[in-house]
Design a protein that fits this description.
The structure holds two protein chains of two kinds.
Chain A: H1 2-29, H2 34-39, H3 46-55, H4 62-74, H5 87-122, H6 127-141, H7 144-158, H8 173-201, H9 205-212, H10 217-245, H11 249-254, H12 260-269, H13 273-301
Chain B: H1 3-6, E1 23-34, E2 37-49, E3 54-58, H2 65-73, E4 81-82, E5 87-90, E6 93-94, H3 100-106, E7 111-114, H4 118-121, H5 128-140, H6 144-157, H7 163-166, H8 176-188, E8 194-198, H9 206-223, E9 226-231, H10 234-240, E10 243-248, E11 251-257, H11 258-263, H12 268-275, H13 315-319, E12 325-328, E13 334-340, H14 345-350
Parallel strand pairs in B: 3-9, 3-10, 7-8, 8-9
Antiparallel strand pairs in B: 1-2, 1-4, 1-5, 5-6, 10-11, 11-13, 12-13
Helix pairs in contact in B: 5-6, 8-9
The chains are: A mainly alpha, B alpha/beta.
Amino acid sequence: MGRYVVRRLLQVIPVAIGVTFIIFCLVFALPGDPIQALAGDKRADPNIAAILRDHYHLNQPLYLQYWHYISGVFTGDLGETYNGRAVSDLVSQRFPITLKLGLTAFALEAVIGIVAGIFAALKRGKFLDNVVLVSTLVLISIPVFVLGSVLQLEFGVNLKITPVAGIQQGWPQSYILPAIVLATTSMAYIARLTRASMTESVRADYVRTAVAKGLPQRRVIGLHALRNSLIPVVTFLGFDLGALMGGAIITERVFNMPGIGQQLAQSLYLRERPVVVGLVTLLVLIYLVANLLVDLLYAVLDPRIRYE
Amino acid sequence: MTIIDQTDAVPAPRDGESTGPLLDVRDLHVEFHTREGVVRAVNGVNYSVNSGETLAVLGESGSGKSVTAQAIMGILDMPPARIPQGEIRFHGRDMLAMSEEERRKIRGARIAMIFQDALSSLNPVLSVGFQLGEMFRVHQGMSRKDAKAKAVELMDRVKIPAAAARVNDYPHQFSGGMRQRIMIAMALALEPDLIIADEPTTALDVTVQAQVMDLLAELQREYRMGLILITHDLGVVADVADKIAVMYAGRIVETAPVHELYKRPAHPYTRGLLDSIPRLDQKGQELYAIKGLPPNLLKVPKGCAFNPRCDRAQDVCRTDVPPLVQVTERDGTALPGRASACHFWKETIHG
């Protein structure tokens, strides 16, 4: 187990280098001049532009630019934006917001999704099951910005229960609406996934044994059936945790939350290569760690899986 | 292997229990409501088991033997299953009239079941120690630690080597025979009055089959439990059973004490089963097989369900359902415990 973890962690290094290089090339290939973008509609002062180009190595070939960047990363310097702020500053300022939003959404989708899935599976073909099936279908079909705007109107403007947008009121008031919006699609998937695998395991022989042992239904379902149904759900949750930590561009935009997603969109627009690459690298690392956690969780859920 | 000879003729009841049979199934019907129609899986089964007694229920797949057992355990999925009539009396009380909570307390503690395929019947993600200990924790409120100690004791009891070292292992880490021993240990945990073993050795290879059957018979004798042994293996039955009930298409077609059945079957179906056992002294001859297939339970043949496959079938067999009647000697003396559901039982038994 320990060796497996070390090996998986070592795999992170080549993946991270490869990914940063690809992202770097892609951003490099984007049309448009980042220095001109700083000046907006006005023409940039040629002297200042030249100084800036020199400072950010923009006149050098791609491989040298990448070298400057990646050697900085290894000394803990994520680079700076074209208006002089350290990228690490930016991340430490923006990331907590995304973290709070993402974890809230994660908790919502995991708890509600799994519970709804279990009840749907137990009441298969009954009213409750159909409620879950239809509502998940509806939730999957609604675009995020539509749901976001409707909730803003209803809870923010009409009922005045939550703020319409922004994060002034902090957690949880300012986060609850965007978290719900962010969680809905995954919640629906998780409910359906749980329902499907639960339906299968309640018919399994070992569940019949558990009933024959005289265990109360709570224990039969909650322990014997659920434990076996969770593997596909955990896979999805792990994947989704990575996605949520990457920030939600649309949700953050609709609710005007200055998280990683908004920053990424803005930096792409301004061709801020160091920021984009820095953020994406961070996201890749989060993904890799989330996946590693999922794989380790497998072994806990199913002892037949062994890592050597 | 002369276990039967060692059991008492009339098993004494346990202390403080009512006399009369331990389990008494009366006129049990079970039907399944499916899209294609109503499947009558069990049609008026009667049997009883006393303490310390072994009843073997014999029959092909689909004869209703497992469904009867599951109805006794109360582990049928209802719906689609339904029990339109019948009684299952355990210590004289009808279990079908009990509340679900009362039945749950009986399951596992007073009546336990051993399933056919131990690999799929044990939970793959929980250690065997946990699954054994669960019996004590749920039914007796024992602590986790005490339950584990009890689990080790049980594993020793069913002769699993190095029990203490293996208690935290998972089912897939055991061999087939050891897994079935764990199933037996689990059924035995709370020393139930009755054990139902649903083809306990079918999934095992022959040498292990004998060991497992011996173990089961030994433990049954020791704890004076009633045992219902469901099987289609006539070899297993001869060694351990006291009496046999042969089922066909949801009915009991013949009952008899074990050795009498082998000597003189009173139903053509039983005779066919016995004739289809391979025998060394008939090596080289063609092996007898009952022609045809078990009936589709959606449309059971009119009259005797066995008539399309029967050598003796007459017109009456195609119209009248034969009742299960007492079988007597040629001179009319009663043969205790023997009954046959054949219009021509006299001809079958007396030739």
